[in-house]
Design goal:
This protein is mainly α and about 300 residues long. The chain is about 75% helix and about 0% strand.
Length: about 300
């Protein structure tokens, strides 16, 4: 019975290790591209844009991201000046608008240069009305869109990591079930993976300076390096599963055969990994706790 727990714990530890790599890559991507601010910029452009143009986009099933290129000069100007005003307060990330209420946003807007442009008084007053009417809805839309996009990127990155490492969940589970030495090595590495989740969860997602952003990117790169070249990743040995390892072999030559052999296992592993490191952290701790309870309750012979 305890052996079954060990197999499950080792398998979950493999998934957790992959999830940590995916999480680190995603954080690097988000910080380097400043994705959250870009998505907030799109929502603000939609907020200050003519409602007719926004409705036309939505009715034609077009993404709001098109506004980044096709927004009116007024919308672009008000968003740019709002961003400049936030910088004057010491903040470099536009998505901090998410943390303020509509009254505070209106106060900030009244301080930007555009508010003093007498030729645009009517348009500016219309913009303030748009804030009263749509700002709370825009914030909720931003949060929903951002979370959905992050889930999409998590799935894509998970798929790439799983394929590159040839992490076929079916074959890995079978190997761990048959090979006690590898299984015990992974179980021994599990506490290190758990502590890694705790450490990475402390790192803030919001960075207010370029230096802080560079710092978090470097920390995420180090996490990947430690997992790939360090002891924990060597113990996991994701290429133990049979089939052709895309990481180690010529991609054009082996891609088709490797895909045929592993597509189902890759797909399942991708879905599991995309659930995220926090999910597998909790699950692994739960399984380890159940195992320890079972060991205590088991009568000694």
């Amino acid at each position: 019975m305890l052996e079954i727990f060990d197999v499950v714990i080792a398998t979950v530890a493999v998934i957790l290790g992959l999830s940590l790599i995916v999480q680190a890559i995603q954080q690097i991507f988000k910080q380097a591209c400043d994705l959250k601010s870009k998505y907030m910029r799109t929502e603000l452009l939609a907020l200050f844009e003519e409602p007719k143009k926004v409705f036309n986009l939505l009715n034609n099933f077009q993404p709001l991201g098109r506004l980044s290129r096709n927004a009116s000069e007024f919308s672009k100007r008000i968003v740019t000046e709002l961003e400049d005003k936030l910088r004057s307060y010491g903040f470099t990330d536009l998505h901090l608008v998410e943390e303020i209420n509509r009254e505070k946003l209106k106060e900030i807007l009244k301080e930007i240069p555009l508010a003093k442009d007498k030729t645009l008084v009517d348009k500016f007053n219309d913009a303030l009305e748009q804030v009263d009417r749509w700002f709370d809805i825009s914030k909720r839309a931003f949060q929903e869109h951002y979370e959905r996009r992050m889930k999409y990127w998590a799935f894509v990155i998970s798929a790439v990591v799983v394929i590159v490492t040839n992490a076929n969940i079916v074959q890995i589970f079978q190997e761990l079930n048959q090979n006690k030495q590898i299984r015990e090595g992974i179980i021994a590495a599990a506490p290190g993976l758990i502590s890694q989740v705790v450490q990475t969860s402390i790192s803030p997602e919001i960075q207010f300076t370029d230096a802080q952003r560079d710092s978090i990117i470097k920390s995420k790169v180090k996490i990947i390096q430690d997992l790939v070249s360090g002891k924990s990743f060597n113990l996991i040995r994701l290429n133990i599963a049979g089939g052709d390892s895309i990481l180690l072999n010529n991609v054009p030559k082996y891609l088709i055969s490797a895909t045929r052999k592993n597509i189902i296992g890759w797909l399942i592993m991708t879905l599991l990994v995309s659930l995220g490191a926090p999910f597998w952290y909790d699950f692994l701790k739960m399984i380890m706790g159940i195992k320890n309870t079972f060991k205590k309750d088991k009568p000694t012979e």
